[in-house]
Design goal:
Elements lengths: L5 H7 L3 E3 L6 H4 L13 E4 L3 H13 L4 E4 L15 E4 L6 E4 L4 E5 L4 H8 L4 E2 L10 H7 L6 H4 L6 E7 L5 E5 L4 H7 L8 E8 L1 E2 L2 E10 L2 H12 L5 E9 L14 E9 L3 H12 L4 E4 L2 E4 L12 E9 L4 H14 L4 E7 L3 H4 L14 E9 L2 H18 L19 H4 L2 H14 L13
Parallel strand pairs: 2-4, 3-4
Antiparallel strand pairs: 1-2, 5-6, 6-10, 7-11, 8-9, 8-10, 12-14, 12-15, 12-16, 13-14, 13-18, 17-19, 18-19
This protein binds flavin-adenine dinucleotide.
Amino acid sequence: MKTFDEEYLAAVVNGEVYTETNKKYENLRMVKNTVFDPHPLAIVKCLNEADVVQTIRYCREQELAFTVKCTGHSAAGFSAGDEEIVIDISSLDQVEVDGSTNLVTVGGGANWFKVGEALVPYDLAITSGDMGGVGVGGNAQGSGMGFFIRKYGVTTGRIRKVRVVDATGKILVASETEHSDLFWAIRGGAGNFGVVTEFVFEAHPGGTVLAGNLFYQYDPQLIQQLTDYILHAPDELNGTLSFTTAPFTSQMPEQYKGQLVIALMVCIKGSPAAGNQMIKELKKYSGFLFDEVDFVPYIKLFPPIDPSGNTLMLNFYTNELPDELISELNQELVTTGDPQLVTQVKVLGGYFGRVSNEAMAYSQRENNYLVIMRKAFGSAEEALLANEDWKDKWEQLRKYANGIDINFLGIGQLNELEMMYKPANLKKLKELKKQYDPANCFIGVLSIQ
Ligand SMILES: Cc1cc2nc3c(=O)[nH]c(=O)nc-3n(C[C@H](O)[C@H](O)[C@H](O)COP(=O)(O)OP(=O)(O)OC[C@H]3O[C@@H](n4cnc5c(N)ncnc54)[C@H](O)[C@@H]3O)c2cc1C
């Protein structure tokens, strides 16, 4: 490492450079998962693509390590950038909609709420996730498990073109017809190939959806019945089950508060009559308590909140939900009723499962379910103490897993590339990494080498 010259870097970028001596540094250095306490060497708040180019060039010349940060939502702390230069791209957040082609140009630092808002007048949407504050940059390059997963697939699959600043500071455009190998790698490569300064997505119908939670008494057999119903339903029905202790929402009737419940969040885009029929059928299952399902604007489903906290997480893909798995998954919840612990099962299949694993780097298409466990702790110390237990938990659950999702990685799952990609995809990704980032400069990511 050579020397860091703050004044020089500040002079060659349009944005600001923040170091420990600046008041704003304290706020800017943090990521959303406060288990991490990073102290970057400096934070470069980029205003445009040229700033990204200049910062990368400077870091390469001075042999300084750098990390790209969009909104800092990575639960695994990828964008934390301790003792590094953090390239903060959150101001690259422009959104332009072409209503005639449904193509949407989005800055690499935008969040999904901003994109969703811009799409409202066009009755369009881009499936992304359940929180508006989550960044497009990381989310769309991992997977993107949204409310339309069975109808329109992962967010990654909606990308049509990208502008990328590579590890030398060069700007590349990648699509099916230009740098198609890079385009393949970006769609699942989790930020290993460059800084995406601009995405072009193809939007799909949005507008009004039939959506909301249906609540049931907790019953392991019902979990199997509901997931099976959704898996075999038309693609229009998307559903995620959460197992948690009520109150889950402010509308929860008093008599159910404190009980263990199954909250089935549905989002249906299709004929209103067919949607109503599906809800009617879902309400017939024994254990149904009440529901909040209604016709709502899609934008209402992912509020612009930006949660932070001391979070531990783990996830895995699986094809079956046998009794033993459900019992192991929910053992702690059933015995403690801890409201901070939430386990989710996202039901896949539909269009998601009909896309080939070879189409892009993301390759978990044959799986029926994505299981996610997360817990918020009172302090970072408490979370770090519990981390060993979570590693054990993952070791116990591993036997059920066919794969792991990059977006919901837990701290104990970082070195499991073989679980994140199919063998042929991983081989190709490693070859492309050597071609596009031979010096492994993009290190604030899941490391593909
Ligand atoms: C509260 C919460 C809810 C969530 N809900 C969902 C959900 O419903 N569905 C889902 O799929 N995921 C969900 N996630 C996971 C989320 O998608 C991932 O954590 C994702 O990586 C966050 O992206 P980010 O850009 O906001 O985060 P960051 O921490 O800023 O970045 C994550 C990674 O991506 C890299 N990166 C970011 N932007 C770029 C870019 N433009 N170019 C190159 N590299 C870049 C960073 O270097 C880092 O390695 C959720 C996470 C949280 C905390």
